[in-house]
Amino acid sequence: MKHVIVSQFDPVSEADLKRILSYRREKGMTDLWLTVSEEGILDRKTRLGLLAKAVRPYRRLHVAEDAENAEYMEPLDEEIIRHGIYRKAAQGIRKDLIEQGYYLNETAKAMCNPHRYAHTCSVAETARKIAAVHGMDQKKAWVMGMLHDLTKGFSDEANRKIIEIYKPDWLDISPKVWHSYTGVIFAKQDMCLEDRDIAYAMEHHTIGDGKTDWAHLLYIADKIEPLRGYDVSEQRKSAEKNLAAAANMIREQSKAYILETEGIHV
Fold first, then answer.
1. What phi, psi does 7 have (nearest 5°)?
2. What residues does 199 pair with on adjacent strands?
3. Confidence check: pLDDT of 258 > 70
4. What is the pTM of this model?
């Protein structure tokens, strides 16, 4: 009879796999089957699929559909992963987590205050809708929106330490802008982000000086998302026609507003 271990695997972590492999060796088992419990943030079918990818490199580990009579194993690092440390997930699923945005809602809740979390979700949905108009990847647009402000809640000192290492030429500009780049570093190092379009758009989303459609899209979505509370109908219509033109218009309007309210040329 095959031996089955069940856990939430929401998601499966690298620590889970190491413990499972150690357990198999200790028990002298040739093969071991794993399956997921009913309860989880992701649906069971998705978690089973991710588990199958995670165990693919291990020929003695298998995925079972049935959890009946399985031995329960307490999960390791699940919450840490869901809160943004995707590098602790099983190596075979890290790319899926970030590209599909499986736990970005949980990550944003953990890293943002309620106001910033609401804004983040609104930006992501705005970006998705505008992307649809232009035939761009809607999931990618949504992921980009969910990532864009994750490090805005970091202290100036924490952001400064990152900027000093990776972007020292930004030390002379406002700390309000630093999260544009520290967010990129966090996403790459802790969330295993590899998408260059998203990284570039994140870096340029505050100043709005990006040159790609993805950068224009994120900058626009950040400025016109509905929770901003002002009439953006003109800007939205422009964005649905031409991303570059809309981004330029919004950037010029933003410069004029800062000059009027703060007397600062930007």
1. -155, 175
2. none
3. no
4. 0.93
